Amino acid sequence: MLAVAGAGMAGLVAAARARELGADVAVFEKGDRAGGSMLLSSCVVWRHVDFAGFRAECPDGDERLQRLIWSRLDQALAWLERTTRVGPLWQDTNNPRTTGRRYDPVALRDALVGRIGHDRLTFSAGGDVDVHRHQGPLVLATGGFPVRVARERGLLVRSNPWSEGDGLDHARREGAATAGDLDELYARALPAPPARIEESDYVRLSQLYGGAARVFDERGDVLFAGPPAWHENDLAQAIGRAPGGTAWFELDDAEHPQVRAAREAGGEVVGVPGGLVRVHVAAGVTHTLGGLAIDERARVLREDGSAIDGLYAAGVDAGGIASGGYASGLAQALVLGLVAAEEALAE
Description:
Blueprint: E1 2-5, H1 9-20, E2 25-29, E3 44-48, H2 51-57, H3 63-84, E4 98-102, H4 105-116, E5 121-123, E6 138-140, H5 146-153, E7 156-157, H6 166-173, E8 178-179, E9 185-191, E10 214-216, E11 222-224, H7 233-241, E12 246-251, H8 257-264, E13 269-272, E14 276-288, E15 291-292, E16 299-301, E17 307-313, H9 329-346
Helix pairs in contact: 1-4, 1-9, 3-9
């Protein structure tokens, strides 16, 4: 039997692929629902148009794993649509740097669960996921450790509330090595408290106009001088490193749609002389970029580079892929979920 820890995109894909290959599978989810952080996202699964662009934007990442995800994504998307019969909402990303598809996350989650079978999912509703009593290979797909990082650094959570690092901890106890910087994040600027932010607001309330804003820290000093990258993850990480994990965006347009959304959510939006507006923002952690060291077969590795028998990692439990930049976490989940299932069952 293949055991899968985590029922987000990576875990559901691994389990669905294993079922397709004729294997018995058991999925263990710490929360009270399937879907993980995918369910709270815009559900765009993408890659850079060319591999050189991937390398340029994530220069510190593992080139072998980047090549794996970049080269297999189109095939993986075809598998996803064929298996789930869920068509894309968008046929492409409308970004000249990237290509991919956007899906309805609820429809995708429900279809994957249907392919696996509801009876093969076990929910612990916040308790620890116990996989030790199951024999056979194990795929770790627990969503990294964004909740732990947010708690330790006083940042907002922009992920599901259960990804606290259970996969990382389990593998480390088995002697696993890590890859990438464990402090590096994929984050977004959100309206700072006392704004009211529900899980359904994570996409809508993201303050994505950093390229047009001036960014100040709480003392009024410039926090981020240069223009951010197109994805603005560099800006969000800078906010996360600031005292309190907060900053102010100053903008000329007081009626910018995302400014209005921040105001409507109860965020602090204030006018300043000259017809400008300032929005109080805070960094919200979506997922971590550092994690477990794996090879191209999704096998979890020890410090000496040897593989731990029967242990695999998929999604953002695997680290060091988008290091130094930004890439699609859902693409990483989809491709590594497929690879982990195929390799685990081949042994």
